Amino acid sequence: MRPILTVFFCLVAGSAFSQERPYFVTYDHYLEEPGNLEVAVATTTGLPRHGHPSYVAPWLEFEYGVAGWWTTELYLEGVAAGGDGSAFTGFRWENRFRPLGAEHRLNPVLYIEYERTNEASRIQKEIVGSGPLPYEPIARLRNERAHELEARLILSSAFGGWNVAENVVFEKNLTEDEGVEFGYSVGASRSLGTLAAGNSCRLCRENFMLGAEMYGGLGTSDAIALRKSRHYLAPAASWHVGAGSTIKLSAGFGLTEASDRVLLRVSYAYEFPLGLR
User: Fold this and answer.
1) CATH superfamily of the 2-271 domain
2) pLDDT tens profile 220-248
3) Contact partners, residue 36, CB within 8 Å, separation at least 6
4) Which of 184, 191, 193, 252 could be 205's S-S partner, Cβ–Cβ 3.0 to 4.6 Å?
5) Quick check: 147 and 116 in contact, CB under 8 A?
C-alpha cells in the first residue's frame, strides 16, 4: 500500500478552495447550506476486466441542508449493462452530522446511511469488503435484495487553500448473518484560483478545482483482505458553472485484479435555495 499512497499524493500535489469538491466517494466536512436543496444527476461507467460487459450505473441525488450541523440526502439508482439488460437497483438515505460548528484543524463528521439495494447495484459510492463485483446476469442479481447500514468517520482539514479528507467506512448487511465490511477513501483537492474575479466569469480560475481520491475495500471482520479487494486511484475535477450549477468529472483506475480497469464518473448538480428552515 505504501507505493500506492506515494503515487496518490504525488498526483494531487501539483493541483491548486471551494466547498464543491470534485470527490465522488470521499466526503469532507462541508455540509449543504441550511434551507438549500441540491439536485444532482450522476453516472458511473465501468469498464471491467476479463471480458465482462461494460455498464452504466446512473443515480439521482436530493441533498437538503436541515441545519448547519445536519445534511440529509436521498439516492435513487439503477444500472444498464451491454447485452445484459437494465434494472432499478434501489435507494439510499444518508445523513451527515457535524458535531463541531467552528472550523478546526481537524473537522470530524459522523455519517450514517440506510441502503435498500440489490446485488446489481454498481454506482460504487463506497467500496467495502473484498472481491470483485458480481457479474451474474442482471435479471438474477436484481432479485437478490439487501438491507444494509453504513457508517463513516469523516475527518477533514482545510489549510493553505487545500482540502484533505479521510473516510473510514463500516457496512453491515442486515439481511444476511455475516460480519462487518470495511472500506476507506482519502482525497485532496485545491481550486485553481484563490481570489474571486470582480465580474461574472464562468471560465475564471477560481471556478475550477482539481484533486484526486483513492478508495477501496479492507476486507471484513472475519478476514482482512487488501490484495483481493477493489482499489482505485481517481484524478477528479469540478467546474462551478455559475448560478448554483456544478459539473464534476472523475476517472478511477483499478489498482488490483479485483478492480474494474476504469470507472468513469460524471455529475451535474443544481442548488435551489428553498428557505424552508
Assistant:
1) monomeric porin ompg (2.40.160.40)
2) 998 887 788 999 999 999 999 988 899 99
3) 64, 65, 271, 272, 273, 274
4) 193
5) yes
Cα gap 120→243, rounded to integer Å = 36
Q: Which residue has the cell 457535524?
A: 98
Q: What gap in Å lies between CA 224 and CA 217, rounded to an integer?
A: 9
Residues in a beta bridge with 217: 183
Rounded Cα gap, residues 275 and 180, in angstroms: 39
Return the C-alpha cell found at 157: 482539514
Burial degree of 168 (CB within 10 A; 0-12, 13-18, 19+): middle
Cβ atoms of 220 and 182 closer than 8 Å = yes
Distance CA 213, CA 253 (A): 11
The residues, any chain, with a CB within 8 Å of residue 199's CB and separated by 6 or more, are none
Are 253 and 272 within 8 A, CB to CB?
Answer: no
Show me where the domains of the chain are located: 2-271
CB 236 within 8 A of CB 212: yes
Alpha-carbon distance of 267 to 265, in angstroms, equals 7
- Does the global pTM surpass 0.85? yes
